[in-house]
Amino acid sequence: MGFLVSSYIQHFSYFGLLAVLVLCGLGLPFPEDIALLAGGFLVHRGVTAYPATIAVSLVGVVAGDNSLFLIGRRFGTGLLTYFGLGRPRSRRKIERMRQFMQRHGSKTIFYARFFAGLRAVVYLSAGSLGVSPGRFFVYDLLGALISVPLVVSLGYLFGEQLDLAIHYAGGFERVILIAAAASLLLWATRYFYFSPDRESD
Description:
The longest helix has 36 residues, at 50-85. α4 packs across α5 (116-128) and α4 crosses α6. The protein is 85% helix and 0% strand. It has one domain (2-193). The protein is built from seven helices and no strands. 36% of the residues are buried.
């Protein structure tokens, strides 16, 4: 799968990179970071230019993220209800989630950009729980302005050694995780489990 997508990107260069990144944001079963590394690899090979690759990658990533956010904004609450969160107790949990997102959504959206496993959940939740499109766009873009150039640059600098670039990209995400996880976990635990109106088990 990875070879096929990488070959597709190389054949269609900018358009291929843009299309794959948008589809990654919408749930394509292919890691977004691999597509970005492939974009850097194309720069290394002289197929594309570095500034244009960064620009196209930013557009693709942000477009995919915002598309997922808008899906959540349109259908998210209904999906939560469908998966069993429509019961009275669950609805109270959703309300606490909504309040948490209103208070800490900016940080959550920003940090989620660095973790493939969290992006879809956070972006759909942000849309369904009432985060404004402008707020989502700004903090998603801020995260992308850091992560996208970094990952593309790794693909460029390591060139043929994409396995090494993938290793360093994963290491970067782990560093961000260590810096962010403790504070996010503290906020979530305090809000969901120690709030005054928490229902008894």
